[in-house]
């Protein structure tokens, strides 16, 4: 009888658990699943559901344990390998994660390319974790509450406004969201005292904090306008928004989903009022949420899955019109948005855009990225690296001082899926290396021009570091990569049919956000004439001037990086003076250039000096022809060609 009673109780717990699961109440489902499996072994279906419930509540350690079981089930869904890999990666088990990504790609060939990208991203994560930390990160004392989620801080007066599910009323359990098992999200504010200690957070007044979820707010710098996110439940039609704050109140109605909306509130006589919906809310079709107002109040960024999205959710922006209304939303573009999820935008006081993404290469979960540019024209998207990012979810960044210090949200230290707010201080200031690969050509006027050279392999080595990064320039001859101020980088570029080129990027501590680095390539062709720029000599002299030495040093580097080539060094004069005079002068200048190269360690057997005097003019400025000094200068040139 006791045995039958135990089985009956297990079946009852299982029925309750499955009902909660079907209604997206994953936290409540897990409570009943735990009771059920304590009395009997879980079936394959129950194992799958427990694994999924832990994943949906972001409890990565438990999800790892249960997906390890799920992948062993007969007829297991191939996606379990992906979910298992994601949990392993979040838990810092990179080698095991790579194996599971590959198994996923093998089981689902249509995802093989994505699997390879995730393996490469995991390898990059390992490198990031091994690098010196770029910032100090610690929990924000006095604001977080253990066991609850606190996230998405934003500047608000003298302090911050943030999102929390700690509950507002004393009887918080009276209204619990089944997905998480915690109260609904609401907005809170907090301020530090003169010593920097944070006071107890206060819930925003009821007119802003409605009955359902209220989250991710952004305030105008004058403190008179507030934009924030609310959830709205609608009957399911198209895509279910996958945003982490997309939660449903009445989960017992599975035909309903929630969508996000943006609202604004205005401060009147010290109180928030005049709650207005964003003009582009459309809960029957899509979500809009996570508003981020620019410092001047003229641009509003937000996340949405509206028409025109490139992935699950994209970053959009809208511009304030002359009458104060917001213009038609515009997608921030493919540089920012991916087929994955981009959300939680933030714009600092200098106009730099930060956002969270799981579509760009990251360390796991959502990572925080920075981008340079404005509106829909962005470049140099940069992963903020370790420890701003972690193998788990990191998002909701803000700066208290641009580029120096701020706060972010993460569940990196959580075992139950809750987020905390962390403060950070930048130790190594980032910079974007904007690499250009160019080909040097001559136009019809025999003048050097530079055109983009695509698909060049560039090995980038940081000074005093043993490892290197290998990158490929795009179809425009561009590549953007992360660097740090106060650091030197060596770049070595190679492409079949071209001479190997090298450049050194010395980045001072006072550098701006972007450093331009150009690699200029010449074709590796016999008898191809290459004009050296800025090789000038004083009148009637052949001594190597300092400015000429700088250009010849570049040729030294080319010869060092291409040890098999031999060159003829030639010098040319303009038409003024006699034939014999110019011939002798050009020979002396060519010999002086060769001697300089030899003094820098180049084997003389690789070099030939040749003077052509005025026999090879590049324009019509011959004897007794009146020409400008600029035209004469075109003829006074130093060249080399591969022999």
Automatic annotation (TrEMBL):
The keyword Transferase does not apply. Transmembrane segments: none annotated. The keyword NAD does not apply. InterPro entries: Bact_OuterMem_StrucFunc, CarboxyPept-like_regulatory, OMP_bac, OmpA-like, OmpA-like_sf, TPR-like_helical_dom_sf, WD40. It comes from the Bacteria. PANTHER family: LIPOPROTEIN YIAD-RELATED, STATOR ELEMENT OF FLAGELLAR MOTOR COMPLEX. This is OmpA family protein. It comes from Pontibacter populi.
């Amino acid at each position: 009888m006791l045995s039958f009673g135990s089985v009956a109780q297990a079946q009852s717990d299982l029925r309750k658990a499955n009902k909660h699961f079907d209604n997206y109440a994953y936290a409540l489902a897990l409570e009943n699943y735990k009771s059920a499996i304590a009395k009997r072994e879980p079936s394959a279906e129950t194992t799958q559901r427990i694994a999924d419930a832990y994943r949906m509540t972001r409890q990565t350690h438990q999800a790892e344990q249960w997906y390890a079981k799920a992948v062993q089930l007969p007829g297991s869904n191939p996606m379990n390998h992906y979910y298992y890999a994601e949990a392993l990666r979040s838990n810092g088990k990179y080698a095991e994660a790579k194996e599971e990504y590959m198994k996923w790609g093998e089981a689902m060939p249509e995802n093989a390319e994505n699997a390879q990208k995730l393996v490469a991203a995991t390898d990059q994560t390992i490198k990031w974790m091994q690098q010196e930390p770029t910032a100090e990160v610690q929990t924000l004392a006095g604001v977080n509450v253990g066991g609850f989620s606190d996230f998405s801080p934003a500047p608000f007066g003298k302090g911050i406004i943030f999102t929390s599910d700690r509950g507002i009323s004393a009887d918080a359990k009276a209204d619990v969201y089944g997905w998480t098992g915690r109260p609904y999200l609401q907005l809170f504010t907090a301020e530090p005292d003169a010593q920097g200690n944070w006071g107890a957070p206060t819930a925003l007044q009821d007119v802003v904090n409605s009955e359902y979820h209220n989250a991710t707010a952004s305030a105008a710098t004058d403190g008179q306008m507030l934009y924030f996110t609310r959830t709205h439940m609608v009957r399911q039609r198209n895509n279910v928004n996958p945003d982490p704050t997309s939660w449903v109140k009445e989960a017992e109605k599975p035909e309903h989903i929630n969508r996000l909306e943006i609202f604004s509130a205005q401060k009147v006589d010290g109180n928030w009022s005049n709650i207005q919906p964003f003009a582009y809310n459309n809960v029957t079709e899509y979500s809009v949420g996570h508003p981020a107002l620019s410092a001047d109040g003229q641009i509003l960024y937000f996340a949405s899955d509206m028409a025109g999205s490139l992935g699950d959710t994209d970053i959009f922006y809208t511009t304030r019109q002359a009458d104060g209304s917001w213009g038609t939303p515009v997608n921030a573009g493919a540089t920012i948005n991916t087929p994955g999820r981009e959300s939680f935008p933030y714009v600092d006081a200098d106009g730099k855009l930060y956002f969270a993404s799981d579509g760009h290469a990251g360390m796991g979960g959502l990572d925080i990225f920075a981008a340079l540019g404005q509106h829909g024209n962005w470049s140099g998207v940069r992963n903020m690296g370790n420890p701003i990012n972690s193998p788990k979810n990191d998002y909701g960044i803000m700066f208290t001082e641009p580029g120096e210090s701020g706060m972010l949200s993460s569940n990196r230290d959580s075992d139950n899926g809750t987020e905390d707010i962390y403060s950070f201080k930048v130790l190594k200031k980032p910079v974007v290396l904007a690499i250009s690969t160019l080909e040097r050509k001559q136009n019809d006027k025999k003048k050097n021009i530079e055109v983009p050279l695509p698909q060049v392999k560039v090995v980038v080595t940081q000074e005093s570091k043993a490892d290197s990064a290998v990158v490929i320039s795009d179809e425009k001859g561009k590549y953007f990569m992360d660097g740090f101020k106060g650091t030197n980088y060596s770049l070595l570029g190679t492409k079949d049919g071209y001479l190997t080129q090298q450049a050194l990027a010395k980045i001072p501590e006072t550098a701006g956000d972007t450093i331009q680095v150009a690699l200029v390539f010449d074709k590796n062709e016999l008898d191809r004439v290459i004009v050296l720029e800025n090789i000038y000599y004083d009148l009637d002299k052949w001594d190597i001037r300092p400015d000429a030495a700088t250009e010849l040093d570049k040729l030294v580097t080319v010869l060092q990086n291409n040890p098999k080539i031999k060159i003829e060094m030639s010098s040319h004069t303009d038409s003024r003076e006699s034939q014999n005079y110019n011939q002798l002068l050009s020979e002396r200048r060519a010999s002086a250039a060769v001697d300089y190269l030899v003094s820098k360690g180049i084997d003389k057997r690789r070099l030939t000096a040749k003077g052509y005097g005025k026999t090879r003019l590049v324009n019509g400025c011959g004897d007794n022809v009146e020409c400008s000094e600029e035209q004469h200068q075109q003829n006074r040139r130093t060249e080399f060609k591969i022999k």
